[in-house]
Design a protein that fits this description.
The protein is of the alpha+beta class. Helices cover 45% and strands 11% of the residues.
Amino acid sequence: MAKKASQDGANSAVPRLRAARRVSKKPRAAAAPTVSKSAAEAAAKGKTTYPFVSDPARAANMRSNRRTDTKPEMALRTALHAKGYRYRKDFRLDLPLRRVRPDIAFTSRKVAVFIDGCFWHACPDHGSAPKNNEWYWSPKLAKNVERDRAADEALRQAGWTVVRLWEHVPLTDAVDEVIAAVGGPRGGATR
């Protein structure tokens, strides 16, 4: 009996904790936005060079943006692979002027393909100007466009062909444009 009581006592603690959580119906206070240690130190010194997050949901949204393997990029890679094309993805090229990472690189044919997001690369048709922290975002997006142009020029000077596609371009048009730049697939595989 004593053994059973000690086992019940050990096991019953966990259900009680869970039950206590369910019973408590107090409204939770809104969590304060998390700020990194360096951002907190900068704010304490009165420096606000980096935009602080006003909405935790927005912060989570921005953190989830991918640098590689985006949906448009994956769709294009899948379509090219199905047609018999082989390539390198996110391949770093150390050029004389700068380092460049094309989304898709055909190294033997020296063709670099970039799939640019409308927001991040300031698409003239679909790019939108941010309304919050405009003082931060406008220069950042302008720098992205400048970096794209510098990368294009560095690749051209190194003898590469550059293909830049917007994320909103239909997949068939994107595939046709890449095939026009690359030529036929190697090894005679056609589908």
